[in-house]
């Protein structure tokens, strides 16, 4: 039988081990209080050119977490890798319609918002949207639109409607988003239909329009379409609003247009993929991103419209007042957010593959 003294030493040793190991969980202090973290790893999955390296590296240093940062170039690529399973990612970014699709396939985990006190910084208009009405699965990250940009020195034509992009003046000159919903979408809008059309006959018409547009398309690029607009490789583009603005800063000859049929609007959101291994770390990361100064630093490098209203006072006025980024309500009211199309998405896939391969 061990003595009381020996037992006391054993108890103290066990207690010390528990304290230093954190029993697989540890505390991360913040201004808002004490947040919980799981272990020392975090696997982030995000669009390319969407988060400064310094931000996720500083997060890792602050909380003693090893961050693995992986990028993708489309919502569909992101979905495919998450569907592969295995809990390989702890936090990802998904656009509005993709959140809806992933919910239906049970590919997202509910978020514990108690671990994200900075969620209060998000504007009310970005919460409770159709893809997450109960605010269970998402934390808004950035929002914006797809717009038209034209180098006025190279193409002497204004764009008032999507139909203008079919003009021969744009032959072999356009960089466009490598995104089937966006491209087939503008073909549908040209015809007077919705970005979310599912009627097979109308989609067949859209395919014919896509084929007619193809001679004007020089390249597909969703990652960094601004590059081609800046270096002159492309004289026009159908690109993300922030990419257009960044390109315009380097090339003032670029003019940005909002076709009158209405813009493709989007909101990107953080989600926690199913079977994430470090869920608490994912929530800690989201809370860090929503710190006003951190959030503003992201907007400084990648000036997409920021739903974090507390960050706006740290963002320069030229950015906040730029109507190509922070759209007027009248423009927003005319626009459309994409929706999950269910089985009809296969028709979009088929059109995309067939047209691009011809």
From TrEMBL:
<feature type="binding site">
    <location>
        <position position="97"/>
    </location>
    <ligand>
        <name>spermidine</name>
    </ligand>
</feature>
<dbReference type="InterPro" id="IPR001188">
    <property type="entry name" value="Sperm_putr-bd"/>
</dbReference>
<dbReference type="GO" id="GO:0015846">
    <property type="term" value="P:polyamine transport"/>
</dbReference>
<feature type="signal peptide">
    <location>
        <begin position="1"/>
        <end position="21"/>
    </location>
</feature>
<feature type="binding site">
    <location>
        <position position="49"/>
    </location>
    <ligand>
        <name>spermidine</name>
    </ligand>
</feature>
<protein>
    <submittedName>
        <fullName>Spermidine/putrescine-binding periplasmic protein</fullName>
    </submittedName>
</protein>
<keyword id="KW-0813">Transport</keyword>
<dbReference type="Pfam" id="PF13416">
    <property type="entry name" value="SBP_bac_8"/>
</dbReference>
<dbReference type="GO" id="GO:0019808">
    <property type="term" value="F:polyamine binding"/>
</dbReference>
<dbReference type="InterPro" id="IPR006059">
    <property type="entry name" value="SBP"/>
</dbReference>
<keyword id="KW-0732">Signal</keyword>
<keyword id="KW-0574">Periplasm</keyword>
<dbReference type="GO" id="GO:0042597">
    <property type="term" value="C:periplasmic space"/>
</dbReference>
């Amino acid at each position: 039988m061990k003595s009381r003294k020996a037992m006391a030493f054993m108890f103290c040793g066990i207690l010390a081990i528990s304290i230093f190991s954190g029993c697989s969980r540890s505390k991360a202090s913040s201004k808002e209080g004490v947040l919980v973290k799981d272990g020392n790893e975090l696997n982030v999955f995000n669009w390319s050119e969407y988060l400064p390296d310094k931000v996720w590296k500083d997060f890792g240093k602050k909380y003693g977490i090893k961050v693995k940062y992986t990028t993708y170039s489309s919502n569909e690529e992101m979905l495919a890798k998450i569907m592969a399973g295995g809990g390989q990612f702890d936090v990802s970014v998904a656009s509005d319609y993709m959140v809806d699709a992933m919910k239906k396939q049970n590919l997202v985990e509910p978020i514990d918002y108690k671990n994200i006190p900075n969620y209060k910084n998000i504007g009310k208009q970005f919460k409770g949207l159709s893809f997450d009405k109960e605010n269970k699965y998402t934390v808004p990250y950035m929002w914006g639109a797809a717009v038209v940009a034209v180098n006025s020195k190279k193409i002497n034509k204004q764009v008032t409607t999507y139909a203008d992009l079919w003009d021969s003046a744009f032959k072999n000159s356009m960089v466009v988003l490598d995104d089937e919903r966006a491209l087939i979408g503008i073909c549908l809008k040209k015809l007077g239909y919705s970005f979310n059309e599912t009627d097979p006959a109308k989609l067949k018409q859209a395919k014919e329009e896509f084929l007619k547009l193809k001679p004007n398309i020089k390249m597909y690029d969703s990652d960094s379409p601004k590059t081609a607009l800046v270096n002159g490789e492309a004289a026009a583009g159908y690109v993300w609003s922030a990419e257009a603005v960044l390109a315009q800063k380097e090339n003032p000859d670029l003019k940005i247009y909002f076709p009158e049929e209405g813009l493709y609007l989007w909101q990107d959101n953080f989600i926690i993929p199913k079977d994430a291994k470090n869920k608490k770390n994912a929530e800690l990361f989201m809370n860090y991103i929503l710190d006003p100064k951190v959030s503003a630093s992201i907007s400084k490098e990648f000036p997409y419209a920021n739903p974090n209203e507390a960050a706006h006072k740290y963002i320069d006025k030229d950015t906040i007042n730029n109507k190509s980024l922070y759209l007027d309500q009248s423009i927003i009211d005319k626009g459309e957010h994409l929706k999950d199309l269910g089985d009809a998405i296969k028709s979009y896939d088929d059109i995309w593959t067939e047209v691009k391969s011809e």
